[in-house]
Amino acid sequence: MIAREDTPGDYIIVYRSAYGRERDKSGDTHSEAYVTALCFSDDYDRSIELAKLVDAVLDGGRNDDVGKTMGWSETRATLDESEEGHSDGKFFQSLTFEIS
């Protein structure tokens, strides 16, 4: 789902940005997926706070409290890259996570 240009307030868009399989020398494979979360806000500081919340939930292995709350015994996602910007009157934080 893509938000309309005039969407009021804060919002987050999440989408799968890549998917594939990695093979090792023995022919075994494992799946890799990348998920991107875009955090939008009218306020720069609020966009940062939204990004911190998304990071704490998705990269739960680094956050013991979130991991315990979600019942995770291991990391489900790892932050791979991030960037920020301003578009259509909104500040945004883009966080891409590797899920494997």
Describe the 3D structure.
By secondary structure, the protein is an alpha+beta fold. Helices cover 22% and strands 47% of the residues. It has helices at residues 44-58, 64-70; strands at residues 11-23, 29-41, 77-87, 90-99.
Supply the key terms.
4-stranded antiparallel sheet, 100 residues, alpha+beta
Secondary structure elements and their pairing?
Blueprint (H helix, E strand, L loop, with lengths): L10 E13 L5 E13 L2 H15 L5 H7 L6 E11 L2 E10 L1
Antiparallel strand pairs: 1-2, 2-4, 3-4
Helix content: 10-25%
Quaternary structure type: single chain
- Class inferred from helices and paired strands: alpha+beta
Number of strands: 4
The major beta sheet can be summarized as:
4 strands, antiparallel
Specify Rg, calculated over alpha carbons: 16 Å
String of helices and strands: EEHHEE
What portion of residues belong to β-strands?
A: over 45%
Rounded mean pLDDT score = 83
Distance between the termini: 24 Å
Quickly count the helices.
Answer: 2
Strand order of the largest sheet: 1-2-4-3
Q: Which ranges are low-confidence, i.e. pLDDT below 50, for 5 or more consecutive residues?
A: none
| Rough outline | elongated
